[in-house]
Amino acid sequence: MGNKVFSELGLDESILKAIDAMGFEEPSKIQAEVIPVLLEGHDVIGQAQTGTGKTLAFGAPILSRIGKQDGKVNSIILTPTRELAIQVNDELNRIAKFTKIKLLPVYGGQPIDRQISALRRGIDIVVGTPGRVLDLIRRKVLNLSSIRFLVLDEADEMLNMGFIDDIEEIIKNSNQDRQTMLFSATMPEEIKRLAKRYMKSETKHIAILKNAMTVATVDQYYYEIKNKDRFETLCRILDVDEPTSAIIFCKTKRNVDELVEGLQGRGYTAEGMHGDMNQNQRINTLRKFKEGNLEFLIATDVAARGIDVENVTHVINYDLPQDVESYVHRIGRTGRANRKGVAYTLVTAREYMSLKHIEKVIKSKIRRREIPTVDEIFVSKYKNMFSKIKETLEQDSYKKFIPMATELDEEFNLVEVAAALMDMVYSKEVNYDYTENEIGSKTDYKRLFLNVGRLDKINPRKLVDFFNENAKVKREDVGDIDILEKFSFVNVTEAAAESIMKHCTGKKFAGRKLNVEISTKSKR
Question: Tell me, what DSSP letter sits at residue 269?
């Protein structure tokens, strides 16, 4: 990739401005290779694993070349699921922030009348699932005869889900002079046949080799948070774990600056590193971190490249990274030289599915942890103080204070004196002014047993969709999902458990009559 930057790829200024606002400092491999080719007008097959930044790879060139808007649909982007349609639409809206482009996600499970009304008012880009897109075409409200761009996102997944006939019908209803983009993690024969039939003969095939996606020496955890509690959650983690050397990753340069200011203002020894800092600043900060004079290094992905510090105990993803590869690079900063490391990731309910996707790609479990309570912080600090007091008593240095302690003994109870001194130490070590013992939602989950598993070709996304459609259960009501070979376990809130038991038991799912029971094994 040669460490290209987005400004070298030929994108429109308004799109570059949006990418900068999103905090992306440099393109991923697929973005760096695909964007210039798409800007030249070629049809492209992009082969890369999911989570490598494909949406921006096709979205930025489309938005740069879309031209004058006339109310007609200019681009159609097909995705296998409604979750991905929503995710892609949200990402494109961020890329189109400084343009007047109008986008519309269309998918089943949402009233079609609203989508029809929006299309009649004028939409530039439609992002949708094949079934709903085809329905709108047949109703003659979605006209693809003038489109300039057609994207098949996660094409292999769409074929696995049986959408091949729908896709072909949609393509046949599309402008033949369009530019076609096909993105797929794998390249089965059906994809090759589809490309040969509907893409231009000079189509460019760009494949990004799959990297190793495992970090065996790192224990990985996540905290589900509310965005307003992000900073306090970080402080609680730092106070309860007391890491000696941690790298905290932020998505943007601005976030780095704000977090450094926030942590320093509360007494933590933290400094930042990002692309706007000069070389001397970065060298000095890194030197302090390596020498142990700096506990917390706050960095963007680009600034942290090349950091090789063996004694990093913790990596904390203050912001979720933009792709799986970045996540692996980040957590690989700890667990060096066969030492154990710890990686924490803060995610909102909205980001949860992105985290589960990372977990799937890296084939490694990211376990849930509850946000530390003030009581837990107190116990952690007490154990630390007790250990230090014990070490001091095993030496002679404290004896010079015995006359003072004897004087205090004449006026006060020495147990109360010791407690007062510990209170002074505790007050200095806890830098955040915690007002509540608990923050966030410390959810008590019911664990459900389902008689379907991997052999039935189900995945977490399909399960959540099924619960939503039949029991009106929201994504935020679902915790960990464990899919085994012949059965599955799902953690859900108590209200959701009742609704699922009532409305899903006996329904047909994955070709089987679904049996749902409360599991005898409890798990948070």
Answer: -
Encoded tokens for 230 = 């992000």
> In this structure, what token pair is assigned to residue 181?
């983009």
The CATH classification of domain 6-207, taken from the options 3.40.50.300, 3.40.50.2300, 3.40.1000.20, 3.30.110.10: 3.40.50.300
CB count in 10 Å sphere of residue 258: 15
**Strand-pair category, 296-299 with 270-273:** parallel
pLDDT of residue 523: 41
> What is the dihedral sign for C-alpha 25, 31, 32, 35?
negative
pLDDT of residue 524: 39
Measured between alpha carbons, how far is 330 from 326 in angstroms, rounded to an integer? 6
> Rounded CA gap, 347 and 472, in Å?
23
**Residue 196 in tokens:** 């040969």
**Residue 211: both structure tokens together:** 């990297």
Q: What are the residues facing 365 on neighbouring strands? A: none
Separation between Cα atoms, residue 197 and residue 188, nearest integer Å: 15
Are 437 and 370 contacting, i.e. CB atoms less than 8 angstroms apart? no
User: Does the domain spanning 219-368 belong to CATH 3.40.50.300?
Assistant: yes
Q: If we measure between CA atoms, which residue out of 358, 348, 356, 297 comes closest to residue 322?
A: 358
- Closest C-alpha among 421, 441, 268, 325 to residue 54: 325
127 with 92: CB under 8 angstroms?
A: yes
CA angle 119/121/125 to nearest 5° reads 45
Other C-beta atoms lying within 10 Å of the C-beta of residue 160: 15
What are the residues whose beta carbons fall under 8 Å from the beta carbon of 167, sequence distance 6 or more?
78, 130, 152, 158, 194
The whole model's pTM is what? 0.57
Q: Has domain 445-518 been given CATH number 3.30.70.330?
A: yes
The tokens describing 117, both together, are: 């009304």
User: Tell me, what's the pLDDT at 81?
Assistant: 85
Whether residue 419 contacts residue 355, with contact meaning beta carbons closer than 8 Å, is answered with no
Distances (CA, A) of 213 to 2, 346, 413: 21, 20, 59
Q: What DSSP string describes 114-155?
A: HHHHHHHH--SEEEE-HHHHHHHHHTT----TT-SEEEETTH
User: Quick one: which of 275, 241, 434 has its CA closest to 343?
Assistant: 241
Residue ranges in the chain modelled with pLDDT below 50: 1-2, 521-524
Q: How far apart are CA 34 and CA 279, in angstroms?
A: 31
Distance CA(520)–CA(447), nearest Å, equals 8
pLDDT at 279: 74
Residue 263, C-beta contacts closer than 8 angstroms, at least 6 positions apart: 235, 270, 296, 298
In the chain, domain spans = 6-207, 219-368, 375-429, 445-518
Phi then psi dihedrals of residue 201, to 5 deg = -65, -30
